[in-house]
Predict the structure.
Amino acid sequence: MTTHEYDAVVVGAGTSGCYAAATIAKAGYEVAIVERKTEQEAGHIACGDALKGAANFPDAIPKSKLEPAITNTEVDHGRFEIPQENTVLDIPVPGELAVVDRWKYGQCVIGGAEDRGVDFHYNVVVTDVLQDDDGTVTGVRGKHRGDVHQFDADIVVDGAGSLSVLQDNTDFDGTNFDTNVNYSQFCSGYREIVEVEEEVEWKDALVFKPTKRAAGYLWYFPRTGTEINAGLGFQMTEEPMQMVQDLKQDLRNRPEFEGATVKDKLGAALPTRRPYDSAVANGFIAVGDAAGLVNPTTGGGIAGAAYSGKYAGEQAVKAIEEGDVSEENLWRYNERVMDHFGARYAGLDVYNILSTAVDVDNLMGLLASLPMGKLSEAIYAGSAELSLGVKVQTAIKSFGNWGTIYNLYQTKNQADRLLDHYESYPDSPHALDTWQNRRDDIMTDVYDVTGADPKY
């Protein structure tokens, strides 16, 4: 057995793991990333490839490092196709938006971490999590081409992705680490990179389309005018779909894909749930998908992964410097995640819960009837109130869908209640039980309003 010693070890060379490792290395500490894929395949994951707000990403990896992977900066709106209503909705998306070559992006992020001095150990499959007598995580053990390698560290950062194997192999007794995790809180996704001969007319849009079965959607995201990320995802609470066949059928029905060439295929699972109540334990921090830090309504997770890596890295540095890697000393990581985007994701999860119970045809019919252009203009302008004219127009056009509107209104009220509660996330693990009890009371009301089955 070969033993390696580091101040911190990060499992997973994705966005969250690389940003965490780069942050720790930037502070002058020795850190390693352990990655199950080969050096060539690292960073190659199934993703929609849409990237929002990259200009504001943490500077542990310079923004200039990401630029070679950005392939389309013209996208500025979402294009929602509603076949059953023969309608297309174009809705502007505020802020910086781009589409990337995800494998190249992954390589760029890895390069940024390497520049900070991070050591990479590729082709290592982690099999065990090491803990001392009081349960503190002290490292991981894995296999590289049949040989056992052990990585000892003061802090282990779990960036191993959805349904992380590290969490399956860690004893969290005596901590508040969130173990209320199961497959039904995740989405299964599949995507192909498709090359067409002529530029698509919607090269400046992210295209969404509801699936025929189950709670999910098809997407078409243009990396360039002629290279399209075409994918499909659905909630694991629903009956399985034949994703490859369903996607191919839709591709066949779209004339712009006639004669197209498939360049790459890949599938994955991702969380469509609220963030973990706590993603820290003694000597252990979970980041990115491994902590449920994905927008549960869109599946977007790159920005959350980058910032969770930054916050985890900074908290790890503090813990190492103070010689205290306890859950309580790592707790500030949870607070920063909730303050920045975790609370918002928890509120959005209410709408994800609604989607498992609402009649999709009714919802699509409502969206098709609304004056979405004027509504989106008012929303993105930051207006809390709509003009009388827009209100009247909305009421007239939505006639026949008022029951669905009332359901959405009630759901929004519960989402707002939940968001308010998350803004009082506790500053200590000792207060978590009381906070959770109140949160669970709100969730009971969410299920009553939406008619959905309990998710947690």
The radius of gyration is 22 Å. The chain has a mean pLDDT of 89. The longest strand covers residues 147-158. The CA atoms of residues 113 and 260 lie 36 Å apart.
